[in-house]
Amino acid sequence: MKEEEFISEPRAVKDALEGMIWQFAYRGNTRTTGEPMLYCGGLSALEDAFSALGWDDPHIIEDPSLECDVEGCHRFSGPSVTWDGMYSMICTEHHSEECDGKPRPKMKETAIKRESLRDKDNVLPGDWREQVFTKNK
Ligand SMILES: [Zn+2]
Fold first, then answer.
1. Which domain holds residue 91?
2. What distance in angstroms lies between residue 113's CA and the mean position of ligand 1's atoms?
3. Cα–Cα distance, 77 to 92 (Å, whole number)
4. Total structural domains in the chain?
5. Residue 111 CB-half CA count within 13 A
6. Are residues 7 and 51 in the same domain?
């Protein structure tokens, strides 16, 4: 794409900025509610990108598919592990518990539904987020 085409296409610019933010912004959780958030951490390029998109810093993420599988935990999922026989996408704190040999806590219904969608090769369908978070609510 030529530069003038890129600049005249706001959607492409927005997608590029969001992609940069998702790749490089810091991930954390709010102290009050524990919601997942992205933040700049004082990096000026990220501050400019957040500003261009009109995002607050921190920017609260409202996508439950990115959260830890453990019931009641809203932290970003990180490592994927098999914990007591269930493949799980969990946050770093729950990963520590798994590494310490603690028993798997109750998992979210959405995690159980997601895992039921895997095929014989253990692959999720491309639309698993829609199937888990849109249908059968
Ligand atoms: Zn967790």
1. 80-133
2. 18
3. 7
4. 2
5. 24
6. yes
